[in-house]
Amino acid sequence: MNRSELPEKKAMSEKKSTSELKASSEAKMRILFADDEHNLQELMRSELPRMGYSVTVCPDGLTAVAALEKESFDCLLVDLNMPGLDGLQVIEKAKQLYPEIEAIIMTGRPSTETAIAAVRHQVFDYLMKPSRLAEIAVILGRVDERRTSKKQMTALQHRVRRAEGDNQLIGDHPSMQSVRKLVERVAPTDSSVLIRGETGCGKELVAKSVHQHSRRADKAYVAINCGALPEQLIESELFGHCRGAFTGADSARQGLFEVADGGTVFLDEIGELPLSMQAKLLRVLETGDIRRVGDNHTVHTNVRIVCATHRDLEKMVEDGLFREDLMFRINTFEIRIPSLRERVSDIDALADHLLRRHRPDARPGQMLIDDETRELLHAHVWPGNVRELANVLEHAAILCDHLPIKPEHLPRRFGQRQLRKELRESGPMTLRDWEMMAIEQAVKRHDGNKPAAAEELGVSLKTLYNKLNSVEDRKVAG
After folding, report:
1. 327/317 Cα distance (integer angstroms)
2. Do residue 25 and residue 70 come from a single domain?
3. Residue 146: what pLDDT?
4. Quick one: 25 and 108 in the same domain?
5. In which order are the strands placed within the sheet that holds 193-196?
6. DSSP class of 197
7. Quick one: 330 and 185 in the same domain?
8. What distance in Å separates the CA atoms of residue 478 and residue 476, rounded to the nearest whole number?
9. Do residues 266 and 367 both lie within one domain?
10. How many domains are there within the chain?
11. What CATH number is given to the structural domain containing 264?
């Protein structure tokens, strides 16, 4: 770049660039410019803000490093040859401080060696002097687009995490502490993991935790419910198919193992897999090679296998329903998830955690669930485990206008449980007494709303009024 390019400055100043318009609605990209040429310093000091960017100008490499140590930048635009520290040394320091920073090199003395060094330092672009402002603007625009894309991806991932809930293993019960320790031990390896536990106890949550703490965390995590796939389509779903392989195969399709290449495949309910597929899965797990349906060629994949089941696989092996060699292959490392009734002491922490998914407006320290409701939650058997608890709290969150959650916000079965408790504690009672206590409790739970109480009790509104009137009649007669 030289003075002959300076008239371009006037042309660019007469019209707002697209970058400038974009910067009016988004945070400006922060650029650190370092060059020992005074004319270029002044040019960039005036022109980069016109393009819509925030700029800090430095006269040499040492000053640039000092600026990096004081504040963060999104982009580095540096001369290759500067006194003190050269451009590559500045980039190396910047990458240490801010791994996501993008770097652009400018040089008047290009060479193969410096180009190779630039690639090694993951430089975004390599410009030769003299460079036109328009060329610089285009490159900076590409950097800004990448920066925006990264922000959008981060925001999307955040929304997904919020929708799914944090993949935390909640609970301080010794059985859950043991689960967390086992996850920490096995996650960094590539060993196959078998997760056992009842339906709804959180097996997939543990599988995700294994993946997220592994070296494959930045790769794909693909969950497959073996019990939900039609038997005739399982092979195609897992390994893919070629066009025309079967009726309806109008185009070639990758299987889920190919989609997860480099990452983790979670095979949920592995015990539901048909015997015919168990043999094919075993070969894939042993070799890593898959063959699409209708194809003669194999494709190599590199995936980590995590399986889960609520079935007794050993009994299935005895009954000839599950291959023993496959069981040994998937059961390199076993993690057993306790049922919720085995860790009742964790219910409070789980309930609060799950409820905050549906009530993100809840203040820190605010009472989420009152004491009477917590007693009901502790008394429940929880046949559906944590999944059932999550559904109960979602139901309660819908009914509850203002926290805390109260017994009347819980599904009907919890009110019946409370009624049975009160009946036991009240001593001998007539059948009519039991009936009237049930009616009174239902009306109380619905704050006097008799139609709602009648619906809960499964009687007509007329019947409810007749029962209540008969009580009043008896009181008057008495």
Report:
1. 8
2. yes
3. 85
4. yes
5. 221-225, 264-268, 304-309, 193-196, 333-336
6. -
7. yes
8. 5
9. no
10. 4
11. 3.40.50.300
Range among 9-23, 119-133, 349-363 with highest mean pLDDT value? 349-363
What is residue 23's predicted lDDT score, i.e. its pLDDT? 37
- Tell me the residue type at 353: H
What is the C-alpha separation between 143 and 77, in angstroms, rounded? 11
**3-class DSSP state for residue 265?**
strand
Q: How far apart are CA 54 and CA 50, in angstroms?
A: 9
pLDDT at 371: 92
List Cα–Cα distances, 472 to 406, 439, 445, 453, 465, in angstroms: 29, 13, 20, 18, 11
Percent of the chain with pLDDT over 70: 85
Q: Which of 108, 123, 156 delimits the end of a domain?
A: 156
User: 363, 381, 411: which is the final residue of a domain?
Assistant: 411
**Is the separation of the CB atoms in 32 and 64 below 8 Å?**
yes
Q: Are 90 and 144 found together in one domain? A: yes
Confirm if 281 and 238 have CB atoms less than 8 A apart.
yes
Which pair of structure tokens corresponds to residue 171?
Answer: 């609970």
**pLDDT (mean) for 422-426:** 50
For the segment 401-423, the average pLDDT, to the nearest whole number, is 72
* Between residues 388 and 166, the one the model is more confident about: 388
Token pair recorded at residue 148:
């925006």
Q: Please provide the average confidence, as pLDDT, over all residues in the chain.
A: 82
* 105 and 26 within one domain: yes
Residues 130 and 182 in one domain: no
Quick count: other Cβ atoms within 10 Å of Cβ 279?
12
Instruction: For residue 228, count CB atoms less than 10 angstroms from its CB and return exposed for 0-12, middle for 13-18, buried for 19 or more.
Output: exposed
**pLDDT of 410 higher than 60:** yes
Asked whether the whole model's pTM tops 0.70, one would answer no
CA–CA distance, 150 with 329 (Å, rounded to integer):
39
Token pair of 154, please? 């981060």
- Its domain, for residue 388, covers 340-411
More confident call, 33 vs 429: 33
Inside any domain, residue 443: yes
